[in-house]
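hiii so um. not sure if this is the right channel but i have a protein structure encoded as tokens and i wanna go backwards to a sequence. like what aa goes where. can anyone help
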């Protein structure tokens, strides 16, 4: 665990134990804030490490004022470190091969229902839309619309005026609501995901065409390293079905396995070969909620390395 790593072999004592415990009390919340701002598990873990170091240093400094509201203080630290890291992510994106999708945060249904903050992790489709916002707009949207912080609180966290925060929130909300998907039946969404996965493994073109909307779009994030490397989005039912047929023909023979998990609030199809993840696939439905309109396929092995 991050805290154990940072504390190293230093002998524990009451004060450090209390500081650590207070940080861990908010770790799930802090992770959710960071992940929704960054869309990257690895970068979020780095941000949490930076937040822990700042938190521990604050308590080692005898001249530092006491922290009256640990939750607000830690969220402020995480939000600002995440904003700084967006600059690094932007530079990496400039040389990224093909489409970039958020790193899948895969959980079981029990894990999702057991942690309140995990429910506030956004769908893949919304996370993709968030990538089109400015870093500040995204931060304000996440803090206000997802986690319920007020404009004055966010203004203090981000060192902006309340008026500026309200303007950022308004722009972000308008942008998101114009593009975010409608509410859908998650169980039906899961069923279509499973039908698509099973049809792909069987090479069942008829079923693929049945579950795909005519204007379906396939986004594949391989980073130039995954097995499937569609470097541009693929549009249209016939073309997407042809891609899946080709993928099925290219899958390694032998110990293939399909597992069904969750990525935030989305059902997810995981494809494994000999316990090594090959792909994480999330679908979004058409406005009628009856067919698959968007497919997000992550095959970049670096983004799948935490999946078991």
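sure thing!! here u go:
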């Amino acid at each position: 665990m991050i805290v154990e790593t940072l504390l190293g072999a230093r002998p524990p004592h009451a004060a450090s134990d209390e500081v650590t415990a207070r940080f861990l009390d908010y770790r799930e919340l802090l992770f959710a804030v960071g992940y929704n701002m960054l869309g990257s598990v690895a970068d979020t873990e780095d941000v949490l490490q930076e937040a822990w170091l700042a938190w521990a240093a604050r308590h080692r400094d005898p001249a530092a004022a006491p922290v009256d509201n640990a939750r607000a203080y830690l969220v402020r630290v995480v939000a600002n470190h995440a904003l700084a890291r967006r600059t690094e992510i932007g530079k990496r994106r400039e040389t990224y091969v093909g489409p970039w999708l958020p790193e899948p945060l895969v959980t079981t249904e029990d894990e999702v229902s057991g942690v309140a903050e995990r429910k506030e992790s956004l769908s893949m489709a919304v996370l993709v839309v968030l990538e089109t916002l400015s870093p500040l707009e995204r931060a304000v949207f996440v803090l206000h619309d997802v986690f319920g912080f007020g404009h004055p609180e966010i203004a203090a966290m981000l060192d902006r005026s309340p008026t500026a925060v309200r303007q950022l929130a308004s722009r972000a909300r308008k942008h998101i609501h114009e593009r975010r998907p409608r509410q859908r039946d998650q169980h039906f969404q899961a069923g279509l995901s499973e039908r698509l996965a099973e049809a792909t493994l069987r090479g069942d073109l008829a079923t693929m065409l049945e579950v795909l909307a005519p204007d379906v779009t396939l986004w594949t994030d391989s980073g130039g390293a995954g097995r499937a490397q569609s470097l541009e989005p693929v549009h249209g039912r016939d073309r997407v079905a042809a891609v899946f047929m080709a993928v099925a023909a290219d899958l390694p023979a032998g110990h293939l396995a399909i597992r069904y998990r969750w990525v935030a609030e989305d059902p997810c199809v995981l494809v494994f070969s000999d316990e090594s993840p090959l792909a994480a696939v999330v679908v979004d439905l058409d406005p009628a909620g009856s067919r698959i309109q968007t497919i997000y396929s992550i095959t970049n092995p670096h983004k799948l390395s935490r999946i078991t």
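oh and DSSP finds 14 helices and seven strands in the chain.
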